[in-house]
Design a protein that fits this description.
The protein is mainly alpha-helical. Helix content is 73%, strand content 0%. The protein has helices at residues 2-15, 24-31, 33-51, 58-81, 86-96, 101-107. The chain has six helices and no strands.
Length: 113
């Protein structure tokens, strides 16, 4: 999994400044942060819609997997745009490992809930 994320993040970084006519990542970056944010929101909505389907259906499960992959991809584009290495997210998840989600949320500043 880490190799897949590392390879994808590397590709996104390399294509960020590529020709927007030949690279989707370059197109997104060329269109600006608001376009990237819009795509993240769109993909998050599509994840929700896919998850509301009958998840006992193999087709619906495949649709959900595909939408989550799209969301992760666009989140990686956003992280690259913000010059944040995806490993920082992995480190944050590792930091939270073994901590109750309720307890972790309680320790955050009020504006981050």
């Amino acid at each position: 999994m880490t190799d897949t994320l590392r390879n994808l993040a590397s590709t996104i970084k390399a294509r960020r400044t590529a020709n927007p006519e030949t690279s989707y990542v370059a197109q997104l970056n060329h269109r600006g942060l608001d376009k990237i944010l819009s795509k993240v929101g769109e993909e998050a909505t599509e994840v929700i819609l896919a998850a509301k389907g009958p998840l006992d259906s193999p087709d619906q499960k495949a649709a959900l997997v595909g939408e989550v992959a799209d969301l992760w991809f666009h989140c990686l584009v956003l992280l690259e745009r913000a010059e944040i290495d995806y490993n920082e997210v992995l480190q944050e998840l590792e930091r939270r490992e073994g901590t109750s989600g309720i307890e972790e949320k309680r320790t955050r500043a009020p504006e981050n809930h």
